[in-house]
Amino acid sequence: MMEFNQKEPIYTQIIEDIKIKFINGTYQLGQEIPSRRELAKRLGVNPNTIQRAYREMEDMKLIMTARGQGSFMTTDAQILESLREEALDAAVSQSIEMLRSFGKSDEEILDTMKKYLGRGAAR
What we know:
Elements: H1 10-23, E1 32-33, H2 36-43, H3 47-59, E2 63-66, E3 70-73, H4 77-101, H5 106-122
Antiparallel strand pairs: 1-3, 2-3
């Protein structure tokens, strides 16, 4: 069950959740996703909220809906790659800003990143 925060609309949180599942491989290119009714029931939200999320994702070309057949993730690998780049940019930018707020210089941030990357290689 998804936990919703009060800071942003539920439909945008649903879109973000589906984007993350697409980026991390839970949903594959062209894979069918839950129907609007099924997802509304699973998440315990109003079906109109799911309808809005799906409509927004269709406008973004993230999903396609075929009448009578269901909704499917895009088959366009370029859209997936763009989503991955956006997520990477957001994560790195957020991390750098946080470290700067701690008073770290760019050189210290780079040294920290290298240290953590080195740990990953040793595993």
